[in-house]
Amino acid sequence: MGTTLQAKWDRASRTYDWITWGEERRFAAAKERLFAKMTGRCLMVAAGTGNDFRYFPPGLAVTAIDISPGMVERASRKAGHYDGQLDVQVMDVQALQFGDATFDAAVTSCTLCSVPDPIRGLRELYRCLKPGGRLLLFEHVRSRFGPIALLQDLMTPITRQIGPDMNRDTVANVLRAGFEVCWEENVYVDVVKAIEARRPG
Amino acid sequence: MTSTDAYTSRLVLSHTRERTHALLVLGDYGAGAIVGAATAAGVRAAVSPTLDMVLAMLLGMAVGMVIHLLIALPLSPVLGTFHVMVPGSLIGMYGGMLFAMRDTMQHPPPTWNDTLLVGALFGLAVTAGVQLYDRALRGPAASGDC
Predict the structure, then answer these.
(1) pLDDT of amino acid B17
(2) pLDDT score for B74
(3) Which residue among A19, A25, A42, A159 sits deepest, i.e. has the most Cβ atoms within 10 Å of its Cβ?
(4) Residue B21: which of B83, B72, B76, B73 has the closest Cα?
(5) Residue B145 has what pLDDT?
(6) What is the pLDDT of residue B68?
């Protein structure tokens, strides 16, 4: 597991709730709509400090993972408020310690912008999802509008030092990992998206 | 919780979200005006009227990007990173180039009051453009077979 990556997100965990205050208010409704599709046994990747647990439908069995022990410590406190079974663990999405076809659904929330090898992470999710299992993604991606895309490319070397890449083509990566994309929705311009994909079968 | 309680609670939540959303949109315009005015002022201070226009525009772009980042850092937690970054970076980068071009071409140069006012107006216009672009794009973007 990347200790540099863990150290970066451990540092971020101290101010994460404060830094994402505005975003939580902007995107709450879109996240609620997306996560309402969670069913059965679910995996949440990169749980952060657990801010998204409040959007989960009640009564599910959810395993939430994050690479950062600092994030997991904070998320574990919020997991207690969830009306269902919610377990939080330190784990890297690029090397999931679950068996094949374990989960009915997997969810991410601004995750694949930070995974060093997103396709490897997505292939691990593919492996751990049951055939027909759903992948629900709330992600920011590279815009298809040239002037915004150029700015994202220019800013990524800076944002990468403290957090995520700004210019990933996540929809293409999901397809490359073998998923079928069921639908995608623009939440803010074409930069922030809600996406539902499915493992064929 | 009864169904009436649940309905009331959803209604209250929806009203709270609408009010918060309206305040955040106002904040977007405020942030746009601040980034625009600060970029115009920064470029005016950095660009000499005798500087070659191409060099001035490159310098203006760099100054605008730095100013945008400095302002975006404290505003992002309140307004949301993407809602600050997308219009802010457009204002900083492209506004910086435009202001630099103006500052090398216009003789006599604009007053500081005009510089700030035009900068703020440019910021408001770009913010309005991004809001319209967002409205046009928001919603379903693609759907497959599954």
Answers:
(1) 73
(2) 94
(3) A42
(4) B83
(5) 72
(6) 94
Closest Cα to residue A164, out of A125, A191, A133?
A: A191
What residue segments make up the domains of chain B, in order of their start?
A: 23-131
Which residues of chain A register pLDDT less than 70?
Answer: 1-2
For chain B, give the number of residues.
Answer: 146
The average pLDDT across B73-102 equals 95
Residue A80's Cβ-count burial label (10 Å; 0-12, 13-18, 19+) is exposed
Q: Is A141 helix (H, G, I), strand (E, B) or coil?
A: coil
**Phi, psi of A132, deg, nearest 5:** 85, -5
Phi/psi for A44 (5° steps) reads: -110, 125
Locate the domains of chain A by residue range. Answer: 3-198
Q: Is B24 on the interface with A (CB under 8 A)?
A: yes
Q: Least CB-CB distance to A186: which of B24, B139, B143?
A: B139
Residues of chain B with Cβ-Cβ distance to A19 below 8 Å are 76-77, 81
Please tell me the predicted confidence (pLDDT) of residue B3. 62
- Is the pLDDT assigned to residue B1 strictly greater than 60? no
Q: Which of residues 126-155 of A touch B (CB under 8 A)?
A: 140, 145, 147-148, 151, 154-155
Per-residue pLDDT for B4 more than 70? no
Contact A26 B80 (CB under 8 A): yes
Say if A157 is an interface residue toward chain B (CB within 8 Å). Answer: no
Q: What is the complex's ipTM, to 2 decimals?
A: 0.85
Please indicate whether, in this complex, the C-beta atoms of B137 and A180 are within 8 angstroms of each other: no
In whole angstroms, what is the distance from residue B68 CA to residue B87 CA? 10
Residue found under tokens 């506004």 = B95
The whole model's pTM is what? 0.88
In this model, does residue B131 exceed pLDDT 90? yes
Give Cβ neighbours of residue A163 (< 8 Å, ≥ 6 apart): A8, A12, A114
Angle, vertex CA B47, rays to CA B46 and CA B53, nearest 5: 150
Superfamily of domain A3-198: Vaccinia Virus protein VP39 (3.40.50.150)
